[in-house]
Design brief:
The complex is a heterodimer. Chain A folds into 4 domains: 6-110, Sulfite Reductase Hemoprotein, domain 2 (Alpha-Beta Complex), CATH 3.90.480; 134-292, Sulfite Reductase Hemoprotein, domain 1; 307-400, Sulfite Reductase Hemoprotein, domain 2, CATH 3.90.480.20; 415-555, 2-Layer Sandwich (Sulfite Reductase Hemoprotein, domain 1). Chain A is built from 18 helices and 20 strands. Chain A has helices at residues 6-27, 33-41, 65-78, 101-110, 143-153, 226-240, 251-258, 260-277, 284-293, 307-315, 317-326, 354-367, 391-400, 431-440, 444-450, 509-526, 534-541, 544-551, and strands at residues 45-47, 52-56, 62-64, 82-85, 91-93, 127-128, 168-171, 185-191, 197-203, 215-222, 327-329, 335-340, 351-353, 372-375, 381-387, 415-416, 455-458, 472-479, 482-489, 501-502. In chain A, the strands form 4 sheets. Chain A has a 5-stranded antiparallel β-sheet. Chain A has a 5-stranded antiparallel β-sheet with strand order 3-14-15-12-11. In chain A, strands 6-7-8-9-10 form a 5-stranded mixed β-sheet. Chain B has a single domain (2-142), classed as Alpha-Beta Barrel (TIM Barrel). Helices cover 32% and strands 20% of the residues of chain B. Chain B contains 6 helices and 8 strands; from the N terminus they run E-E-E-E-H-E-E-H-E-H-E-H-H-H. An 8-stranded mixed β-sheet of chain B has the order 2-1-8-7-6-5-4-3. Classes of the chains: A alpha+beta, B alpha/beta.
């Protein structure tokens, strides 16, 4: 993975000191809260319902054991002993003090981390396939270009005050596991007919109150031109994106109102002009330098299957169940990627305690090549490079710390936003609903029997819980002072990305759990076989059979 | 209003005219884009030094052909959170080759000074009583940049591969 050199380290240190000065000016009253707000936001500090919240960037979801230990230390020292991993592959702390915030950033800088641009109307942390560098279907590791985007976008002087926040996601694999079609810019690495590597460029995806699937504006961009092309997109957006209404300020609205064809023409024209006059693109020797950090780890030459591992899988049913759901194929024989579930039955999705983080760091040192860890946009963790032969020992240690729930991709692997328990924007609580559903489907055998099913919950229309792209989506709304939940079906974040459709009238907090169960029972009744996952069954039969069961014959 | 230019608080010799006040020949004039477009020839005849003020919704394309006759282009920040003028400044410097003064007006604060300077602004209208020291300190707080912009500063990406800096980075 990438490591800071002298320049990166000095830069982050300068930034911390600058922020320390700003906090001091705020605390002394020299600066108003209005003036301070965008500055703290660009350093990751939000003001939430009950306290400040600090969002720490985990660039493209990649971190190592040393960094994980520091995150545990921060949770223990400056928070209440836990952190929350987010759908943007970051971590949030819910209870830091303003007075401590510069010290926390200092602690992060010690391990080559920061909170720059994790908030505010600027280019946010770039996200990527959590299995980058490990997945069997990968064309090229997307993290090289994610790191280049990280450096380019960091304190970019032209794009610090965009109309609205801006999110970029990159995948290097055939299967999109980074939800690139619901990002402001989605990039998919591809190979053209001449065998060259480049990017398919998608623009204008997003969720929130106006969900949209991104439109393709370029089929193939040679990779050396990525930054000038991004600069062209951002410049057009910065100048033309709406600033009169924050709900219409994302680039998806600009794409929608201008038309994909016309906006593409403007972006291409800007790009041509940019390339003629200035040298925005990263120098080739610098690309090489960054690439070197992402060279594959030193894999051993191993057999495709490990006999001891197969034996354990045969003997230990619980282990076999975990392997079935939480262990993913790797491109190198004898290796696998391991999903560490942060979704224990009845738990809070994405939360990890300081002790769990420390344990994961220790296990990573023992069992994961180069001590590497990933954060997934499903709010779980991944150890990307683990030997099959180490799986049993790793599983036992994870299980002892409630980190081995075998539910990756199943109904209790829920994405949920913090909701009204923490968030100042929320209309309804998300976490208790998530916990109730997780408890309702607590039987892991039953979950496995139901099969792959992505359930996602947002506590308000801003859709941080990705409900629009949940196979089953739940949206919390406020109805005359009561928490109320709408149900959507058929959303998906992958290659065939789609926005889920509302089934009909919403439900109470208890009613929504019953409604989910009704949907699942209906599916089990009408699926062709266990080999037809929920989402396939839904697209075969449509929503009507589900609506009939939810609301009675008339509604459908 | 005070003006920061070349790193010091400077006397502002320019007068910002409203659209109805007659121009005086001996006073350098800042006029709105509307007035400039309506009275171009009269303005050129009546006074030697001219600058045009662009609002945040007025793109510099509107004055491309006039740039050789302008000493100043003033770009407005109606609020510091409105970042359109950063793009306009870069276009003026890098694409349109404007070498005159690009002045930041409106909600100009020290915390955006670095961004303004890097995108091509070289004059800053600030509230009276603001100290230049605070602004100058603001650009010394962070003096390392990854990406190229309208300034001539060497980027981190360049410095990593020049001999002197590269050995420092390796140290």
């Amino acid at each position: 993975m990438y490591r800071y050199d002298e320049f990166d380290a000095r830069f982050v240190k300068q930034r911390v000191e600058q922020y320390r000065g700003q906090v001091a000016r705020r605390l002394s009253g020299e600066m108003t809260e209005d003036e301070f707000k965008p500055l703290r936001l660009q350093n990751g500090l939000y003001l939430q319902l009950h306290a400040y919240m600090l969002r720490v960037a985990i660039p493209y979801g990649t971190l190592n054991a040393v960094q994980m230990r520091k995150l545990a230390h921060i949770a223990r020292t400056y928070d209440r002993g836990y952190g929350h991993f987010t759908t943007r592959q970051n971590i949030q702390y819910n209870w830091p003090k303003l007075e401590d915030s510069a010290d926390i950033l200092d602690a992060l800088a010690e391990v080559e981390m920061h909170a720059i641009q994790t908030s505010g109307n600027c280019i946010r942390n770039t996200t990527a396939d959590a299995y980058a560098g490990a997945a069997a279907d990968e064309i090229e590791d997307p993290r090289v270009w994610c790191e280049i985007i990280r450096q380019w976008s960091t304190l970019h002087p032209e794009f610090a005050f965009l109309p609205r926040k801006f999110k970029i996601a990159v995948t290097g694999a055939a299967q999109d596991r980074a939800a690139i079609r619901v990002h402001d810019i989605g990039l998919a690495i591809k190979r053209n007919e001449a065998g060259e590597i480049g990017f398919e460029v998608l623009v204008g995806g997003g969720q929130g109150r106006t969900p949209m699937i991104a439109k393709k504006i370029r089929d193939f961009l040679p990779k050396d031109y990525l930054l000038s092309y991004l600069e062209a997109i951002l410049r057009v957006y910065n100048m033309l994106g709406r600033r009169d209404n924050k709900y219409k300020a994302r680039i998806k609205i600009l794409v929608h109102e201008t038309g994909t064809e016309e906006l593409t023409r403007m972006i291409e024209e800007e790009w041509e002009a940019l390339r003629r006059v200035t040298s925005i693109d990263i120098p080739p020797e610098e690309v090489k330098r960054i690439e070197a950090y992402f060279a594959p780890p030193a894999f051993e030459t191993l057999a495709d299957t490990n006999v001891a591992f197969e034996a354990k899988r045969f003997e230990d049913k619980a282990f076999a169940q975990w392997v079935r759901h939480n262990v993913k194929p790797h491109r190198v024989p004898g290796y696998v990627s391991v999903d560490i579930s942060l979704k224990p039955v009845g738990g809070i999705p994405g939360d990890a305690t300081d002790a769990q983080m420390d344990l994961i760091a220790d296990l990573t040192d023992c069992y994961a090549l180069e001590s590497e860890i990933r954060v997934t946009h499903q709010q779980n963790l991944v150890l990307p490079h683990v030997k099959q032969s180490d799986l049993y020992a790793l599983w036992q240690a994870l299980a002892a710390a409630e980190l081995a729930t075998p539910n990756s991709g199943l109904i209790s692997d829920i994405i949920a936003c913090p909701g009204l328990d923490y968030c100042g924007l929320a209309n309804a609580r998300s976490i208790p609903v998530s916990q109730a559903i997780s408890n309702r489907f607590a039987d892991l055998e039953q979950q496995a029997h139901i099969g792959p099913l992505e359930l996602k919950i947002s506590g308000c229309i801003n859709a941080c819980g990705h409900h629009h792209v949940g196979h089953i989506g739940i949206l919390g709304v406020d109805r005359k002072g009561e928490e109320h939940y709408q149900l959507t079906l058929g959303g998906r974040p992958d290659n065939e990305a789609a926005i889920g459709k509302i089934t009909g009238p919403g439900f109470s907090a208890d009613g929504i759990v019953d409604a989910v169960e009704t949907v699942v029972r209906t599916y089990l009744n009408i699926r062709l076989s266990e080999a037809e996952p929920f989402i396939d069954c839904l697209s075969r039969v449509g929503a009507d059979p589900f609506k009939e069961r939810l609301y009675g014959e008339k509604a459908a | 209003m005070a003006l920061i230019k070349n790193g010091t608080l400077a006397a502002d010799i320019w007068h910002r005219y409203d659209d109805d006040t007659p121009l005086q020949a001996d006073i350098p004039a800042l006029v709105s884009l509307e007035r400039w477009q309506a009275e171009r020839e009269d303005i050129l005849a009546s006074t030697a030094d001219i600058g045009v003020v662009l609002r945040a919704d007025q793109h510099p394309d509107a004055i491309t052909g006039d740039l050789p006759r302008l000493q100043v282009v003033a770009l407005e920040f109606p609020a510091f959170t409105d970042g359109r003028a950063y793009s306009y400044a870069r276009l003026l410097r890098e694409r349109l080759g404007f070498e005159g003064e690009i002045r930041a007006i409106g909600n100009v604060l020290r915390d955006q000074y670095l961004f303004m300077q890097r995108t091509g602004f070289d004059a800053f209208e600030v509230k009276d009583g603001v100290t230049t020291r605070a602004f100058l300190a603001a650009i010394e707080e962070v003096d390392l940049y990854y990406q190229a912009s309208a300034d001539t500063a060497q980027t981190i990406w360049q410095r990593r591969h020049t001999t002197e800096d590269a050995s420092a980075a390796a140290a």
